[in-house]
């Protein structure tokens, strides 16, 4: 390309960006979705350029008009440049955990509905207009993609329900993948059919198409999950440098898409979407909250540029594609619109209720279904895929024109008919209004806020010496509004306790998540701990939202359980004598408990200051009682670990306070710099000093399990009188064992495999309904070895225990060598047996 050509291209793109920027406020003032206006402007520019080029009225604008009219937009280039960005950004910004709640209906809309819509359009158009069915199916796949941008913008502007927005967004990111994969398969089948002279698909072609589609979708999902996880692991290595983190994710979107699509032969679209979802679900715990917000802001801007530019560029070629439209084409477009609606309606009204019947999804109301049906707008991706057909070699000119004209006309139909009537439809269905509970809460929030504003106005008037009459006038206006709202609102009378409690628990979980993110922002928590805490707070939120108190408390009861990874680390310790994974898990658990304790302490004033005025005294007291129960549970678990590892607890608390001090120090320097009291050089020097200190405390201190055999033996009086030689021999035979709370060490009836000596902690002996506690210095398990019979009791750890284990064979050899030690064991065993017999009688 010449220098003049490059200059012209850059200038054209810059002018288009100016137009895109100017359309945004205009769309807001007109109450029209920006994509609808972008399409209108793009078509208008294309039509005007064609008029100026071919008119005899003037030739002044011929060069500029020719550049627009003959603008060459290669579909594959546009897809490769813009699509990875749009897909990754949509997946990155979506709430993955809420998406999972509705995954069944979303998959139905994104996969099944695409296939049904493609089939409905293909069979219908082929039957009515006599076009070969493969060509009609290809057209169906092209128009099966939906563009959620305009629809979601309308939803957010008028306050549509969150679930409706989530369903539409979730469908869009996945149905693009399905439709493009289907398009690729059908395009290949068409080219093959034309090359071999086959006009109608046969069973072999159908099977090959389904096989290619399945491999592309499943392979893309697996590849996206692996690469997304790799991106998450790389993010912490960038030292919290915001531009570097954003750059890595942008590069990852392209690498994943291109490698999947053109490298390993899977769906790059699916790979990019799944990778974005993985980063969205896990990335927040691996970078600071501030950096995460910056990352999302960067991606929002990139997606705005990419989405707007692809829309305008695609719209510019619409006049060229629609230049010779006739009545037959108009009828084809209207028929396509009808068959597309039929395909989606079958999914929404016949298949979607089946999911509810099978308990795979909560019910989607008829009003939601109507909006989803009518809100299936098509956009730039449909136009780009249609251009791909026009450019494809090996297809007939008639088929190319049929696909291009019909697809383009249908896009314009959905934008200018569905897009302009969707807002009135939502209002007519009442989906832009709050629920009765939401309306009462709105009035309550408004009353509390107006009262606070009134106080703030009076305080500002006193501080800035404003005229009392002016202060009184403004304050009284807020007071009147607050009184009017308060007189119409009685939260306790208008909303049932169950609903108010659910609202309160959701608010509590959201606040707890914010507190965890604050701790993360201060760099006081490790990545693994942040990830687990965020998952727990999300579980608390969903439990409170879906099941109220029962769901919330169910999560509370399981929050302190040892998860699968912990159990696996414990298995490695017990079976393979690998202590490091268990020590790391224990350290993370210690940190998690400390974070829970801090969060619960912060939540108590939140209940009094926010929930009590909002939801009433009774709900506040219920929530406070639940918090007190959680606090006792956490305190018990934390105390158990603190007793076992007091030095480590002190190290964690020291690290936490040091982090707090460093954050306050940095905040102080920021303030002084903003006030002009620190120049840039001095500020940078002070900042580097703090960050160097932070880097020394980044890693968690290492937790020592305390399983040194010599140290554990010194705690046992039983071995105090052994001679040096025998002590050394016993030390070689003993194996240290760490036991978690509530772990069953062995059960009644098990074969006796050895004797356990308690160096620290306590265990419980369970014989039928009797409970006997053994503590430091005691031992158990000897009776089965002395009597050569199965275990007579069940033994469980009451807390964290450090034990020494002596294998059965080693125990017997040791007893033969030291008769005094044997006598000690036998006397204790006889006493225990007598005790058991007396208890049984």
UniProtKB/TrEMBL annotation:
Keyword terms: Cell membrane, Ion transport, Membrane, Sodium, Sodium transport, Transmembrane, Transmembrane helix, Transport
Topology of the protein relative to the lipid bilayer: Multi-pass membrane protein
Biological process, per Gene Ontology: regulation of intracellular pH; sodium ion import across plasma membrane
Record field: transmembrane: 6-24, 36-57, 77-94, 106-125, 131-155, 176-195, 215-238, 250-278, 298-318, 330-351, 371-390, 402-419
Record has Transmembrane helix as a keyword: yes
Pfam short name (any one): Na_H_Exchanger
Superkingdom of origin: Bacteria
This protein's name: Sodium/hydrogen exchanger family protein
Organism of origin: Tistrella mobilis (strain KA081020-065)
């Amino acid at each position: 390309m010449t220098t003049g050509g490059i200059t012209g291209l850059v200038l054209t793109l810059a002018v288009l960006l100016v137009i895109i920027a100017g359309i945004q406020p205009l769309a807001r003032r007109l109450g029209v979705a920006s994509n609808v206006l972008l399409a209108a402007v793009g078509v208008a520019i294309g039509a005007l350029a064609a008029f100026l080029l071919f008119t005899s009225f003037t030739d002044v604008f011929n060069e500029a008009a020719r550049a627009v009219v003959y603008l060459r937009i290669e579909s594959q280039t546009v897809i490769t440049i813009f699509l990875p960005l749009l897909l990754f950004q949509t997946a990155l910004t979506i709430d993955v955990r809420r998406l999972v709640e509705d995954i069944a209906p979303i998959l139905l809309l994104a996969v099944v509905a695409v296939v049904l819509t493609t089939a409905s359009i293909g069979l219908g158009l082929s039957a009515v207009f006599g076009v070969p069915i493969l060509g009609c199916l290809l057209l169906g796949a092209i128009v099966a993609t939906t563009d959620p941008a305009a629809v979601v913008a309308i939803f957010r502007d008028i306050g549509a329900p969150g679930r409706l927005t989530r369903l539409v967004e979730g469908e869009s990111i996945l149905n693009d993948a399905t439709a493009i994969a289907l398009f690729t398969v059908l395009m290949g089948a068409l080219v093959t059919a034309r090359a071999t002279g086959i006009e109608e698909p046969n069973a072999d072609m159908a099977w090959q198409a389904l096989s290619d589609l399945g491999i592309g979708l499943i392979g893309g999902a697996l590849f996206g999950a692996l690469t997304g996880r790799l991106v998450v692991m790389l993010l912490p290595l960038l030292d919290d440098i915001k531009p570097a983190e954003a750059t890595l994710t942008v590069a990852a979107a392209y690498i994943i898409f291109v490698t999947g699509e053109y490298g390993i032969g899977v769906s790059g679209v699916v790979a990019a979407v799944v990778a974005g979802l993985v980063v969205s679900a896990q990335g927040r715990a691996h970078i600071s909250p501030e950096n995460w917000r910056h990352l999302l802001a960067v991606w929002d801007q990139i997606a705005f540029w990419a989405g707007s530019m692809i829309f305008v560029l695609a719209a510019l070629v619409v006049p060229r594609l629609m230049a010779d439209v006739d009545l037959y084409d108009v009828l084809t477009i209207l028929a396509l619109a009808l068959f597309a609606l039929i395909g989606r309606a079958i999914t929404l009204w016949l298949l979607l209720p089946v999911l509810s019947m099978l308990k795979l999804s909560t019910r989607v109301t008829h009003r939601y279904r109507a909006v989803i049906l009518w809100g299936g707008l098509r956009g730039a991706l449909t136009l780009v895929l249609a251009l791909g057909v026009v450019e494809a070699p090996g297809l007939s000119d008639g088929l190319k024109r049929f696909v291009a004209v019909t697809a383009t006309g249908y896009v314009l139909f959905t934008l200018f008919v569905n897009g302009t009537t969707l807002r009135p439809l939502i209002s007519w269905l009442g989906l832009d209004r709050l629920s009765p509970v939401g309306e009462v809460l709105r009035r309550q929030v408004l009353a509390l806020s107006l009262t606070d504003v009134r106080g703030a106005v009076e305080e500002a008037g006193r501080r800035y010496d404003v005229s009392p009459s002016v202060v009184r006038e403004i304050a009284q206006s807020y007071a009147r509004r607050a009184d009017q709202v308060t007189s119409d609102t009685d939260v306790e009378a208008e909303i049932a306790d169950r609903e108010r409690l659910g609202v309160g628990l959701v608010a509590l979980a959201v606040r707890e998540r914010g507190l965890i993110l604050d701790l993360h922002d201060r760099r006081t928590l490790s990545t693994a701990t942040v990830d687990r805490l965020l998952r727990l707070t999300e579980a608390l939120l969903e439990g409170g939202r879906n099941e109220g108190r029962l769901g919330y408390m169910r999560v509370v009861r399981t929050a302190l359980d040892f998860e699968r990874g912990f159990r696996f680390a414990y298995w490695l310790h017990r079976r393979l004598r690998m202590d490091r994974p268990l020590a790391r898990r224990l350290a993370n658990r210690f940190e998690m408990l400390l974070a829970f304790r801090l969060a619960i302490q912060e939540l108590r004033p939140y209940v009094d200051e926010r929930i009590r005025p909002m939801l009433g005294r009774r709900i506040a007291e219920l929530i406070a009682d639940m918090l007190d129960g959680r606090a006792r549970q956490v305190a018990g678990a934390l105390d158990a670990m603190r007793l076992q590892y007091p030095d480590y607890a002190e190290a964690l608390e020291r690290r936490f306070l040091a982090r707090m001090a460093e954050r306050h120090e940095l905040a102080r320097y920021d303030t002084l710099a903003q006030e002009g009291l620190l120049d840039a050089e001095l500020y940078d020097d002070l900042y580097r000093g703090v960050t160097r200190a932070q880097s020394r405390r980044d890693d968690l201190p290492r937790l020592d399990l305390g399983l040194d055999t010599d140290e554990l033996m010194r705690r046992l009086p039983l071995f105090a009188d052994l001679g040096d030689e025998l002590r050394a021999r016993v030390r070689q035979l003993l194996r240290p064992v760490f036991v978690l709370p509530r772990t069953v060490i062995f059960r009644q009836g098990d074969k006796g495999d050895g004797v356990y000596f308690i160096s620290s902690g306590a265990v419980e002996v369970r014989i039928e309904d009797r409970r006997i506690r053994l503590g430091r210095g005691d031992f158990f398990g000897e009776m089965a070895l002395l009597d050569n019979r199965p275990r007579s009791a069940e033994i469980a750890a009451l807390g964290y225990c450090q034990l020494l284990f002596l294998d059965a064979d080693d125990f017997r050899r040791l007893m033969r060598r030291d008769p005094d030690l044997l006598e000690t064991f036998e006397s204790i065993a006889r006493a225990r047996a007598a005790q058991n017999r007396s208890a049984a009688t």
